[in-house]
Amino acid sequence: MRIKSKKVHLEIQASGNRFRGVLRTTSRKDGKTIHETCGHIPPQDYNTLKLVQAALQGKVVMKDSDAAMKITESKEYGASFALLQLAKNIGLDKLIYSRPSEQWVKDCLSMIIGRIVYAGSKLALSQTWKDSALWEINNVVGTVDVDKHCYASMDRLLDRQEQIQQKLVDKHLSNSSLVLYDITSSYFEGEYKESEIAAFGYSRDSKRGHEQMVIGLVCNDEGCPVSVEVFRGNTQDASTVPQKIDDIQKKYGVKKIIFVGDRGMVTHANYEKVKGLDGLNIISALTHKEIKKLKERDIIQLELFDEKNIVEVCETNGSGVRYCLCKNPFVAKKTNNTRQILLEKTKIQLDKIANSKRKSTAEKIGARVGKLLIKTKMGKFIKWTVSKANKLEWEFDDEKIYSEKLFDGCYIIYTDVPKKEMNAEKIVSSYKKLRLVENAFMNLKTVLLEIRPVYHKTDARIKSHIFICMLSYYLEWHLLKLLKPLFEENAKGKKRRWTKRLVIERLKSIRRNKCTICGVESKIITEPDQEQKEILKLIGIKL
User: Closest Cα to residue 213, out of 235, 191, 228?
Assistant: First the structure.
């Protein structure tokens, strides 16, 4: 018997020489009082039933009395239940499989929701059954078998990845859609002898000495994830772009797309490979080196960069490429300050080498200088030589420093989208939407979802784990979208209240208690407080 968060009272009715109790709930709906029978207490003596009645009215009942209400079990319920209902509301269960009643689908939902509510390993998640209702509301009662309910279900989910991603693309990407694509890496702990994915490569986590994997994520123009792919850890960002464009257009059938990628992926070589493909347009940014080449060709002038307005310049070679010139004063200031700090550090160390009194060879002095300039990356601003007396002589190249300073804060977004389809302001704002993918990676790798550490050792399980994390972020993305009013009203500074983690914790504190009255068990959900009611109302969930 499950009693919802309504006012419960007991009616005592005569039953021969004894009395029985009828448990009823009272609630208000549309201004009307509704009474519902939710349970019965078998025949008892009259005094016992009066004690039960008193207990339900909040009056004192001796704890050693048979009529006293005893809480024999308490489990987390609110977050798991709310996220499960939200997953069903957005159709995630049917996206996984057309028959969502199958147990492996429910197991996958437990793992997807579990990453948001608990994170941790699949084994740790399987052990939450005594403290959380997550597995029970997904039809697993009692002990959870990690092999059956986690690993076997992960394998089924991986087999369905392409079909699921096709459905996500159909739902969230339409023809002439803006497609956001970015790459990140995630490092491994320990040995991965059975994995071909694990490899040493450029680490965005600054974790040298660790093997890693590379993860590519495709989102729509709102940052909603639709596809994820795991690459070998030494994969270069740019090398994934042509194939990813081909996948979107041919595998997923989105014929007309505007592909948005950062300057590290949509390189000049990549653009040459994909330009002119039917239905494809590109939005990306130029590297610092490419901006300088445009200046040398006299396509742009530094005077055109403006802090308030976007200046558009067209390529002169007839390619139809447009350049949107922008300047960010905050970035300019930060870049200049950083350079000045590095130049000062370089000066101190170069003076130390130059003024050293110990004897040294030109080769050793050169090696010390080279190592220093590699570390500070200030070599292009330094003129130096070693004299015949084996002494370092150096000076700043003031002309280069001044020339570099002129480019501070300057950036160029380029595109081959026709002007009649997108103006300069729309082009720049579209490129800036890549931060939505960066936010997705931040959520996946830290905060709630915590991709790492990766406990799986085989490539199939690693891929399935990443896919589960993406689906968790898909669910979280919808949750945060519904909670936008809550975060918009959030206070600032030390009065700031709401974070994603706090929302989950507030929902987790709604518990389902197993109570015993006169030998009769009931499952009672704690009454949500005002904050919890507001959260549930925003996401459209009723307990």
Answer: 235
Quick one: average pLDDT of 64-92? 87
The pLDDT of residue 15 is above 80: no
Strands 410-415 and 280-285: antiparallel
Question: Each residue of 270-315: pLDDT tens digit?
Answer: 888 898 899 999 999 999 889 999 999 999 999 999 999 999 999 9
Sheet of strand 410-415: strand arrangement: 225-232, 212-219, 177-187, 257-260, 280-285, 410-415, 322-327, 311-314
| DSSP string across 426-442 | HHHHHHHTHHHHHHHHH
**Residues forming a β-bridge with 132:** 76
Distance of CA 25 to the CA centre of its chain: 42
Q: In the block, which residue shows the tokens 């986590």?
A: 205
Instruction: Report CA Rg, the chain.
Output: 32
**Which of these, 470, 534, 525, 467, lies nearest to 506 by C-alpha position?**
534
Tokens of 334: 């930060």
Residue 156 corresponds to which tokens in the numbers above?
């089924």
Q: Rounded to a whole number, what is the largest CA-CA distance in the chain?
A: 119
* Bridge-based pairing state of the strands 70-76 and 511-517: antiparallel
**What's at 53, amino acid-wise?**
Q
Q: How far apart are CA 419 and CA 296, in angstroms?
A: 25
DSSP 525: E
Full 3-state SS string of 122-186: HHHHHHHHHCECCCHHHCCCCCCCHHHHHHHHHHHHHHCHHHHHHHHHHHHCCCCEEEEEEEEEE
Q: What is the pLDDT of residues 496-533, one digit of tens each?
A: 899 999 999 999 999 998 877 666 677 888 889 999 99
What pTM does this model have? 0.83
Whole-number Å distance between alpha carbons of 139 and 135: 7
First to last CA, the chain: 15
